[in-house]
Write a structure and sequence with these properties.
By secondary structure, the chain is mainly α. It has helices at 3-14, 40-49, 52-56, 75-93, 97-106, 115-125, 132-147, 154-161, 172-196, 206-212, 216-231, 241-259, 262-265, 268-284, 291-298, 303-312, 316-327. The longest helix has 25 residues, at 172-196. The protein is flat.
Length: 335
């Protein structure tokens, strides 16, 4: 018996009856020989962790565009925090931690530079539209590995696609990540907003603080415990009505004070205009993109979609540098 097979047997003995078992995965689009050490979900996690798209997350905006400070979240730290929170819940509910981790690490791979501002810019100008959750799936199915994709299991791809609020993941592990993504961005974005001085505890209604707690740490603890208690022994992931309503109110508060705040978003219009100009330029000059994207066009991928692939894969700083290179005049030098 291989190490992988021992792991698979342990899953049947130790995990909940509602957990996703590695041996029962719907598999990959392209069949592969099994690893003798790792389960299919462990392999998926490792493939995502070692991907180029994952490494680029460290230089992509979470909420604050180009923040001046060492402690503000990036898209990468958000991703790691989602993974940690989701694994805590999965362990308590005896779900498949490897599947949870793979989905969490991959859920934002398709995010644009400058966060949702960049996403809105591409969605507004691309005829086919743009959504980061669909782009994340496109990254793992096609864009990574020079157009071959990562060939992940169906369950991981399903969890990535359905991590948004309106999504309906087919596994409990995917449902955990979907909730933890929302919990994480509310909780951690609030922490960043307090650090930036655009929000304080006094802005949070006492009704919310009574239910969830009087600090970001207490609120995170309340949300995690509520999901565990409400979902224990159930075939779906739940929150109690009281906690769910309080979190919804907290999310609305964040939109008022943070996500739509002029302080936090004062550079957002500039970012949108910049990415729009880059899109228009590369649509007219597709051969100016990197070779791997030119190859996608030659393979028959739609031009507008490939331009979105290229721009959404950029980091914040790289998109600024490309904009300068294309549109900002440089001093003339005889040599």
């Amino acid at each position: 018996m291989t190490i992988r097979e021992i792991f698979e047997e342990n899953e049947y003995r130790e995990l909940s009856e509602f957990a996703a078992h590695s041996r029962e995965s719907r598999g990959r689009e392209r069949p592969e020989p099994e690893c003798d050490v790792r389960t299919v979900y462990q392999r998926d996690r490792d493939r995502i962790l070692h991907s180029k798209a994952f490494r680029r997350l460290k230089d992509k905006t979470q909420v604050f565009l180009a923040p001046q400070g060492d402690h503000y979240r990036t898209r990468l730290t958000h991703t790691l925090e989602v993974s940690q929170t989701a694994r805590t819940i999965a362990k308590a509910l005896k779900l498949n931690e490897d599947l949870v981790e793979a989905i969490a690490l991959g859920h934002d791979l398709g995010h644009t530079p400058f966060g949702h501002a960049g996403e809105a810019a591409l969605d507004g100008i691309c005829p086919e539209g743009f959504a980061h959750f669909r782009q994340s799936v496109r990254v793992v199915e096609l864009l990574e590995k020079d157009g071959r994709g990562l060939n992940l299991t169906w369950e991981v791809r399903d969890g990535i696609l359905n991590h948004r609020t309106a999504g309906s993941p087919h596994t409990l592990e995917g449902q955990v990540v979907r909730l933890c993504d929302k919990i994480s961005y509310i909780h951690h974005d609030m922490d960043d907003a307090e650090r930036a001085g655009i929000l304080s505890e006094d802005n949070i209604p006492i009704t919310i603080r009574v239910v969830l707690g009087g600090s970001t740490r207490e609120r995170l603890n309340s949300l995690i415990h509520d999901i565990i208690i409400s979902s224990m022994g159930k075939d779906r992931i739940l929150m109690s009505p009281e906690i769910a309503d309080a979190m919804k109110s907290l999310r609305s508060l964040m939109f008022t004070y943070v996500y739509k705040s002029q302080v936090a978003k004062r550079e957002e219009d500039k970012a949108k205009r910049m990415l729009t100009e880059l899109y228009l330029y590369y649509r007219e000059n597709p051969m100016a993109m990197s070779q791997e994207y030119c190859d996608l066009i030659k393979r028959g991928e739609p031009l507008e979609r490939v331009v979105c692939d290229y721009i959404s894969g950029m980091t914040d700083q790289y998109s600024i540098e490309k904009f300068k290179e294309i549109f900002v005049p440089r001093g003339w030098d005889v040599e």
